[in-house]
Amino acid sequence: MSRPTIYDVARESGVSIKTVSRVINDAPNVRPATLARVRTAIDLLGYQPDPAAQRLGGGRLPTVGVVVDSIADPFFAQLAAVVESRAAAVGMDVLIASTGLDEERLRSQVERLSRRGVAGFVVAPFGDPAAVAAALPSDVPVVVVDRPCGTVGTDAVRVTDEAGAYEAVRHLVDHGHRRIGFVGRTGQFVTLADRYRGYERALREAGLEVDPTLVETRAWTTEEALPLMAQLLTRPDAPSALLAATPMTGLAVLTAQQRLNRRDVALVVFGDLPGAELMTPPTTVVDQQPTALAETAFDLLQRRLREPSAEPLDTVLPTRLVPRGSGELRPRGAA
Amino acid sequence: MSRPTIYDVARESGVSIKTVSRVINDAPNVRPATLARVRTAIDLLGYQPDPAAQRLGGGRLPTVGVVVDSIADPFFAQLAAVVESRAAAVGMDVLIASTGLDEERLRSQVERLSRRGVAGFVVAPFGDPAAVAAALPSDVPVVVVDRPCGTVGTDAVRVTDEAGAYEAVRHLVDHGHRRIGFVGRTGQFVTLADRYRGYERALREAGLEVDPTLVETRAWTTEEALPLMAQLLTRPDAPSALLAATPMTGLAVLTAQQRLNRRDVALVVFGDLPGAELMTPPTTVVDQQPTALAETAFDLLQRRLREPSAEPLDTVLPTRLVPRGSGELRPRGAA
DNA sequence: CGAGGCGTTGACAGCGCTGTCATGCCGCCC
DNA sequence: GGGCGGCATGACAGCGCTGTCAACGCCTCG
Q1: Would the pLDDT of A334 be above 60?
Q2: Does B274 sit within 8 Å of A255, measured CB to CB?
Q3: In CATH, what number does B61-159+290-317 get?
Q4: A61-159+290-318 architecture in CATH?
């Protein structure tokens, strides 16, 4: 009739429920013969433990919480998709929670999921490092992705932000650019600050000065960035190339160019864009490898779930410059 | 120390746990004075019920399950984002599960979430209607989105697929096209079959014959579609316009065109594309309004959660043709 | 040969909540 | 005034599982 419970399995295999519980949880000290018998009964009845009961009886749910700005963002959607698929493979569920850009909401969402009993988190945090550290739970494993925010003591996966941006700007310099702008809000995100540092270093090493008027750090959403971009691009001393620090700002730059009907400004975007290959010219990007990031994050989470006291790992994945056209444009009037 | 339980609230407010339970669940028959007292205690202690315990004690979790092909798909990502935000507003969580294009997996994912105790589903099903009907749970409210698959007895939200496709093809005809192709796998998806019907009707009404060699129904992913598209576009009697039945196939068409370095084929894509405005020419689409779809789906779910025996509603949302350029291209050699 | 130890198993008490049913109380009716 | 019905509340038994601890071998060692 109804779903079988642990009692049914126990009766079927002639042991106590506790032994069944041991088998379910891969606990040691079960005689192989008993183990086999219980396993058979489980298969026979199609038994599956009730997660709610497991949790109530002291444990956590076989669930991982994914906390990101917005899963409508292609980068995070990709991340969530990979985590979901990996989780499903090991019988875990995925709870998603989006925070927008609200630090308080980051905190409340994490707390909500934690109370909900998730076994672990994959979080892309932002904002003040101290606030982030306070928001993250101490009793549940957390893997911080993409934006380590100076968190310590937790596993983290991120990309070589500084180096990626450096490489991108270097690429632009190599293509003859001298006036290179930077777009992207750096305040709330440690990651973006790193990218900015890479930008700065590349300029410095090329013997170029940083012109603060070419650095636009107020933009986050496309809507915010649009007017700022339009303004930047129509200046008499407009930059001949731009580094967009995020896909969103990249889109803003592209849209602004489109509106102004211009295609002469070289552009490298940090983070891949859906349809980037189809743009005119195709957009050169610094690939963040969201898939690899997500895989690594999930691996780290699993590892910590198994060995809760393992040394925290800060994994740094390389980025990859993907030249597609927009980053190879030469400045106007150049050879 | 630890989180307060219902007992703490009961003690604090001088009532039994049962009364607290009543208050939590908005049950009737609680004297206003008692209600207020309990509410105060709840606020004071910051009490929040433990979902696992609630579920174990007979109920379902305040959770909605979202089951889609892949949340990496921008359309579903958008859908999930909206559902998540609406759910959060009423204190519910969102569990996501992706099915790929595997009918068996649709079934198993739904069952898993159901066992997990979700209170309701938002599902984008596919495949054989009978199989879908069998896969969907009968004891948990389900709202079917985007692809009603002939399901009966459940709430559904969808768009005017036939009419949307009709309008698109009509649009192409009005721009002088006579050889108009259709791309998109129609087999597994009722929705796509509807779109095909709209395509056919528009041709018929325009006095044009359906040329089956211009109809490509084998393509689903971009990878699959690419070679087929390349072949289609390079034929001597190639179509001068295409209707792509899904965003994915739309991307395939665009990519194929790009590879072939062609921009002369008019294109309307069913479903919006990220970055569509930035293409050359910007892509004309039939907007499915994922946000409205998701909002409506969530509303329906909430309604059913409240009134489980309400009459099932089959909501049909209008589509919107968004001319952006690619659909307004005229055939070569036309006036 | 008995004590001690370890590997194996089970009994049982919760976990925090909800459903069922019982209880007490008040107002109403005949 | 006694009886009845309805509202407000509480006592209590689970829900399905896990943690704790005790019990029961059996093997080893002195």
Answers
A1: no
A2: no
A3: 3.40.50.2300
A4: 3-Layer(aba) Sandwich (3.40)
Q: CB A80 to CB B74 under 8 A?
A: no
- Encoded tokens for A69: 């700005």
Residue nearest to nucleotide D20 (CA to C1'): A18
List CB contacts (< 8 A) between B115 and chain A: 3, 48, 50-51
- Helix, strand, coil abundance in chain B, percent, nearest 5: 45, 15, 40
pLDDT attached to residue A248: 85
Mutate to test the interface with A, among B2, B90, B96, B269 (most CBs of A within 10 A): B96
pLDDT-based confidence at residue B308 (cuts at 50, 70, 90): confident
Contacts of residue B18, Cβ cutoff 8 Å, sequence gap at least 6: none
Determine whether the interchain pair A93/B71 forms a contact, defined as Cβ–Cβ distance below 8 Å: no
Q: Which of A64, A71, A229 to mutate to test the interface with B (most CBs of B within 10 A)?
A: A71
Domain segments of chain A as ranges: 6-49, 61-159+290-318, 161-288
pLDDT tens digits, one per residue of A129-161? 888 888 888 888 899 998 876 667 789 999 999
Superfamily of domain A161-288: Response regulator (3.40.50.2300)
Q: Give yes or no on whether A6-49 and A61-159+290-318 have one common fold.
A: no
* Residue of A113, A74, A73 whose CA lies nearest to A94: A113
3.40.50.150, 1.10.10.10, 1.10.540.10, 1.10.260.40: CATH of A6-49: 1.10.260.40
One-letter amino acid for residue B316 of the chain: V
Whether B152 shows a pLDDT value over 80: the answer reads: no
- Single out the residue of A229, A208, A205, A207 nearest to residue A217, CA to CA: A229
Q: Are A326 and A277 in contact (CB under 8 A)?
A: no
Of B126 and A293, the one with more pLDDT: A293
Q: Is the pLDDT of residue B256 over 70?
A: yes
User: Average of pLDDT values for A171-182?
Assistant: 96
B294 in A contact zone (CB under 8 Å) = no
Contact B95 A93 (CB under 8 A): yes
B50 contacts chain A (CB < 8 A): yes
pLDDT at A42 over 70: yes
